[in-house]
């Protein structure tokens, strides 16, 4: 794993990943990597009919995230330029596992394993979670048109899937520190003290791991 900081912010839809990643990029002067969301031509159809459009949606995200990470590796991490991302490509496993049927999931995972075999791995992960009420409030507040038909049950299940995945991830990858924050208790957008608390833990984690800054 590289000593150059590569921080990935993860969590379910609406939890505040992009807002926190932007704040980290500004505070530490890191390069910001934002996931492609609204550019996905299948996403609106996906929220209308998950079964019909899940494979196309997930494949679009996989290919675009692969391309982004490939560029980040070549343009920044390989030159010791720190990066913070509002996602990591492992999230594709969470979404695909929830939305794809057995046959398509098998095909998808074959593609995933090939594409991610030598992708850069974050050396710090920040995991944000929150209750369904908080997630729904933030999704509605940001007002993305393509998310307006999202079923609350889908979002609730997704949050549970994240919890399950992250619990397993921490056991499988003890070498990668995971900083977890509850979005019901912290509001780093509204309160500077909450943001500083997160920065303080990032500082300690980077120092402990002797990650260069």
TrEMBL record:
<dbReference type="InterPro" id="IPR027417">
    <property type="entry name" value="P-loop_NTPase"/>
</dbReference>
<dbReference type="Pfam" id="PF01712">
    <property type="entry name" value="dNK"/>
</dbReference>
<feature type="domain" description="Deoxynucleoside kinase">
    <location>
        <begin position="7"/>
        <end position="204"/>
    </location>
</feature>
<keyword id="KW-0418">Kinase</keyword>
<dbReference type="InterPro" id="IPR050566">
    <property type="entry name" value="Deoxyribonucleoside_kinase"/>
</dbReference>
<keyword id="KW-0808">Transferase</keyword>
<dbReference type="InterPro" id="IPR002624">
    <property type="entry name" value="DCK/DGK"/>
</dbReference>
<protein>
    <submittedName>
        <fullName>Deoxyguanosine kinase</fullName>
        <ecNumber>2.7.1.113</ecNumber>
    </submittedName>
</protein>
<dbReference type="GO" id="GO:0004138">
    <property type="term" value="F:deoxyguanosine kinase activity"/>
</dbReference>
<dbReference type="InterPro" id="IPR031314">
    <property type="entry name" value="DNK_dom"/>
</dbReference>
